[in-house]
């Protein structure tokens, strides 16, 4: 006769360590989505950095020499001037970031939904709880992943620095981590964390909240079942809402993380995310906050689609209940 200890040892890993399993599964799904859509993220970051009015104060060529270009011309320019594979420049820290970020946010959201807030007896989860849960999950996941996000943003700009005749800052991912740590200390690895978690809170309010709400609405109120069709429709909605809510904070985040710093790790262009916001609007207009919106939306939608379809499928294959 088997003992409870034997049954626990023979049970699937997903049942023995549910949170760790969900963390790993979400990291795997995020890796697939990141590899598939990373060129759009690189294009978006280049567009967001272009034309910074704050560069005038540093005398860094007044405004940068590169002309404003749209999404397609920016992507083609990267291929022609730097090479096709440079569309994936910075993908390694991006994958590191998404393993930590996606794992942290998914585990946090489900813990809040199942344990802290709880669903009603009819499986209904109120929208206000989902909004709070999505924002808190984004804050936790992004704070943990901020060092990898910082490296990703700075490495995405290396090809552009080379074309402008500026010296490259990093030889690789690990050198980037080491250099940032040496110049700014541990605090330097969390440069830009405030706008980062602000963006993550907004993006996850759009992504997690929209996906969870739309999916369960479709399952409970329409003939659709919990299948790939429902997952696809829900992810398309979540990608659009996340892009609309998150793009302004993403612009501020990218600029703060990419700005030059002094030996104490303090930024030379912006004092805070609020200062960056004010300078951007005053110097470039309100719509500068939506620079890179098209590639952001075109990236967020397929990223969300690939992530959620992959995540739901590998949960099913691993014996974990649907999201």
UniProtKB/TrEMBL annotation:
Q: What is this protein called?
A: Mitochondrial uncoupling protein 4
What catalytic activity does the UniProt entry give for this protein? chloride(in) = chloride(out); H(+)(in) = H(+)(out)
An example of a Pfam family matching this protein is Mito_carr
Cellular location(s): Mitochondrion inner membrane
Gene Ontology CC: one annotated term: mitochondrial inner membrane
Among the GO molecular function terms of this UniProt record, one is: chloride transmembrane transporter activity
Q: Where are the Solcar repeats?
A: 21-115, 125-217, 226-317
Keywords for the protein's UniProt record, in alphabetical order: Membrane, Mitochondrion, Mitochondrion inner membrane, Repeat, Transmembrane, Transmembrane helix, Transport
Organism of provenance: Physeter macrocephalus (Sperm whale)
**Principal cellular location given in the protein's record:** mitochondrion
InterPro entries named in the record: MCP_dom_sf (IPR023395), MCP_transmembrane (IPR018108), Mito_Metabolite_Transporter (IPR050391)
The family assignment reads: Belongs to the mitochondrial carrier (TC 2.A.29) family.
The answer to whether keyword Ligase applies is no
Q: Describe its assembly.
A: Homotetramer.
Record's keyword annotation contains ATP-binding: no
A biological process from GO: negative regulation of neuron apoptotic process
Recorded topology in the membrane: Multi-pass membrane protein
Protein purpose: Facilitates proton transport across the inner mitochondrial membrane and may dissipate excessive proton gradient associated with oxidative and metabolic stress at neuronal synapses. Regulates glutamate-induced proton conductance in astrocytes, shifting the energy metabolism toward aerobic glycolysis and lactate transfer to neurons for ATP synthesis. Can transport chloride ions with lower efficiency. The transport mechanism remains to be elucidated.
